[in-house]
């Protein structure tokens, strides 16, 4: 596991209640395969993160295909979080009469 992956997993493990609830709601909005790959990769279900090769075996996919799906899922999550941020800012403007 490279340093960047290890750091990313460590940051996610430090998240607390509301953060996790928000992330899981976004993850649940993803297509099933994307969702399952993220869950397996970060070990959210069993607290045992898996690498792309292990995940590929369980999905009968190549390591490269799993990595591609992981990247797409990551970008999809980024898009969802940006959309939520914009909606939150719009709501705050409405609440403050701006």
Descriptive labels:
98 residues, mainly alpha, elongated
Protein architecture, described:
This protein is mainly alpha-helical and 98 residues long. It is 77% helix and 0% strand. The protein is built from five helices and no strands. The chain has helices at residues 3-13, 17-28, 32-42, 52-59, 63-95. α3 packs across α5 and α4 (52-59) crosses α5. The chain is elongated, with a radius of gyration of 16 Å. The mean pLDDT is 83.
List the helices and strands and how they pair.
Elements (H helix, E strand, L loop, with lengths): L2 H11 L3 H12 L3 H11 L9 H8 L3 H33 L3
Helix pairs in contact: 3-5, 4-5
- Which of globular, elongated, flat, extended, rod-shaped describes the shape? elongated
Alpha plus pi helix count? 5
Q: Which regions have little confidence, pLDDT < 50, spanning 5+ residues?
A: none
Strand content: under 5%
Rounded Rg = 16 Å
Order of helices and strands: HHHHH
**Terminal-residue CA separation:** 47 Å
Could you estimate the helical fraction of the residues in percent?
over 70%
Average pLDDT taken over every residue:
83
**Quantity of strands, as a count:** 0
Structural class: mainly alpha
Query: Tell me about the biggest sheet?
Result: none
Summary of the model, kept short:
77% of the residues lie in helices and 0% in strands. The chain has helices at residues 3-13, 17-28, 32-42, 52-59, 63-95. Helix 3 (32-42) packs across helix 5.
């Amino acid at each position: 596991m490279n340093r960047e992956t290890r750091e990313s997993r460590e940051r996610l493990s430090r998240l607390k209640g509301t953060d996790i609830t928000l992330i899981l709601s976004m993850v649940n909005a993803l297509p099933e395969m994307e969702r399952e790959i993220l869950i397996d990769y970060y070990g959210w279900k069993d607290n045992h993160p898996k690498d792309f090769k292990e995940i590929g075996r369980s999905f009968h996919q190549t390591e490269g295909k799993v990595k591609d799906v992981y990247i797409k899922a990551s970008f999809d999550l980024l898009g969802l979080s940006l959309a939520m941020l914009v909606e939150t800012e719009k709501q705050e403007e409405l609440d403050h009469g701006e």
